[in-house]
Amino acid sequence: MGLVLAATGSAIGLGNLWKFPFITWDNNGGAFVLVYLLCIAAVGLPIMMAELLIGRSTQKSVVGALKEAVGPAWGLVGGWGVLCGFILLSYYTVIAGWSLFYFAKTVGWSMSGYPAGLATGDLFGEQAGNGGLQLMLSLGFSLATVWVVYFGIQKGIERIARLLLPVLLGILLLLLVSALGMSGSGEALAFIFRPNFAELEPTGVLEALGHSFFTLSLGMGAMITYGSYIPRGHSIAKASAIIVALDTLIALLATIIMFSVIFSVAGMAEQVGGSAVGMLFISLPELFYSEVPFGRILGPLFYVLVALAALTSTMSLLEVVASYIIDEHGVGRHKATLMCGGAIFVFTILAAISFGAVPFVTTLELGGALGDLLFGGKVGWFSMADHFVSNWMLPTGGLAVTLAAGWFMSRDATRSELSDGTEPAWFRYGAWRFFIRFVAPAAVAAIIVAVIFFGVDFS
Ligand code: TRP
Predict the structure, then answer these.
(1) pLDDT of residue 372
(2) 335 CA distance to ligand 1 centroid (A)?
(3) How far is the CA of 294 from the centre of ligand 1 (A)?
(4) How far apart are CA 322 and CA 311, in angstroms?
(5) How far is the CA of 341 from the centre of ligand 1 (A)?
(6) Given the CA of residue 12, which atom of ligand 1 is nearest to it?
(7) What's the pLDDT score for residue 368?
(8) How far is the CA of 129 from the centre of ligand 1 (A)?
(9) Atom nearest to 11 CA in ligand 1
(10) Distance (Å, rounded) from C-alpha 181 to C-alpha 46?
(11) pLDDT of residue 275
(12) pTM for the complete prediction?
């Protein structure tokens, strides 16, 4: 159970609280949410099972697991996953750091009053552009991550997941109760759950698909790594269903909360439009003090929630990289964790100073056709890294995993893991095999085609 919670914690992260509400907003809710649920069930769930089973059957971390389960050349795919974890973690901690800043700010406001006429947009820009502050925040977050992974799976990762997930859910429920009491909650629920397919554009379908990877931590071996710690005698199908269901639930709850607040304030809906950052760090801070019932308590708690959700994700990212070094290079856990954490932080520095602190890093770009193809013409280290991970690394890694589990591993090998007598009554091996062989690869290939030929952006 500890491991299932840890995997759930990996899945629940900034993607749920930050990205999902925003893309739901951007795609006009309703129909998009429905398509997203479909993608989660038809593509996310089968791939989740595939990753967990590859890990469990070999009991090895991502590189070793793919080598053993599929073939020696597949170690390269594993290496791609480790690299992806490395890069993703290097910038994820920067956004996570912002939640620490806003936690400190809101605690201050709750105690000594919200400053009248504060321009929250400027506040955000100032903190993001303050290099020293950004380095401290992301260093703090990185140290917390290293600290958890340092203690290993049971004493570190599982223990923290057991402790934090209930707290996270508790905070979310408090926020939900408060948000549902607000005048905009009816409109928010209608926006989220009343599908209107005329409002959904084809790119929305692809965005839903792309996000289902990111939010479930798929496509880079995080779930292969966690799968390797799942003991036999536990059902992979059941574990996958729990992880996927909880991740989806949390994303929906977060969206209901945020939209209830936004729809309660006249003119807010127009204002929020701009960006995901805007919703979480520019609009909400102020609304906690002007609109949300019990906002003085819930404001700081909300940013604790963001920080906790991020931490349970960053620790799984570091575990992917560290466990590779531990398993494949024979380095001890303590040393490996410190080494990997340190190496990743070097790149975190680049991400932390790419919001204005250092002009060269902020305006970094790769021009021309190649820059467009790989980085979508994005400017600044942070945006380039995020673009590359979301548009290239996760989809290609995901495609490789579906092909590995569906086409390269034998039927017996996957069947003996999934239908091992512990599987729940609803599970059908034949259905899984169909989805992993045909539906999932086609869907993931569509993402890659969209990135290359239609310039669709999943970051
Ligand atoms: N699922 C995380 C989120 O929603 C992000 C993420 C993607 C991730 N891949 C991962 C986290 C791998 C940990 C491991 O925020």
Answers:
(1) 85
(2) 24
(3) 31
(4) 16
(5) 17
(6) 4
(7) 84
(8) 25
(9) 1
(10) 37
(11) 63
(12) 0.95
DSSP 231: P
Task: Return the residue whose CA atom lies nearest to atom 8 of ligand 1.
Answer: 217
Torsion-angle region of residue 386: left (phi > 0), alpha (psi -120 to 50) or beta?
alpha
Task: Decide if 203 contacts 453 (C-beta within 8 A).
Answer: no
Distance 310 CA to ligand 1 centre (A): 9
Rounded to an integer, the average pLDDT of 386-399 is 95
**Per-residue pLDDT for 405 more than 90?**
yes
Atom of ligand 1 nearest to the CA of 14: 15
Q: How far is the CA of 313 from the centre of ligand 1 (A)?
A: 6
Ligand 1 mutation target, pool 217, 243, 320, 391, most atoms within 8 A of CB: 217
- What is the mean predicted confidence (pLDDT) over 188-196? 95
Question: 136-183, pLDDT tens digit by residue?
Answer: 999 999 999 999 999 999 999 999 999 999 999 999 999 999 999 999
Give the residues surrounding ligand 1 with Cβ less than 6 Å away. Answer: 10-11, 13-16, 88, 214-215, 217, 220, 222, 313, 316-317
User: Atom 6, ligand 1: which residue's CA is nearest?
Assistant: 217
Question: Helix or strand or coil: residue 277?
Answer: helix
Assigned token pair, 163? 């402790």
Q: Which residue's CA is the nearest one to ligand 1's atom 9? A: 217
Largest CA distance in the chain: 66
Q: Lowest-pLDDT range, 40-49, 113-122, 265-274, 429-438?
A: 265-274
* Helix, strand, coil abundance in the chain, percent, nearest 5: 80, 0, 20
User: How far apart are the CA of 391 and the centre of ligand 1, in A?
Assistant: 14
Ligand 1 atom nearest 219 alpha carbon: 9
Q: What is the pLDDT of residue 459?
A: 83
Residue 1, pLDDT > 70, answer yes
Residue 54, C-beta contacts closer than 8 angstroms, at least 6 positions apart: 65, 66, 69, 70, 224, 227, 401, 404, 405, 409
How far from 356 is each of 18, 87, 158, CA to CA, in Å? 21, 20, 37
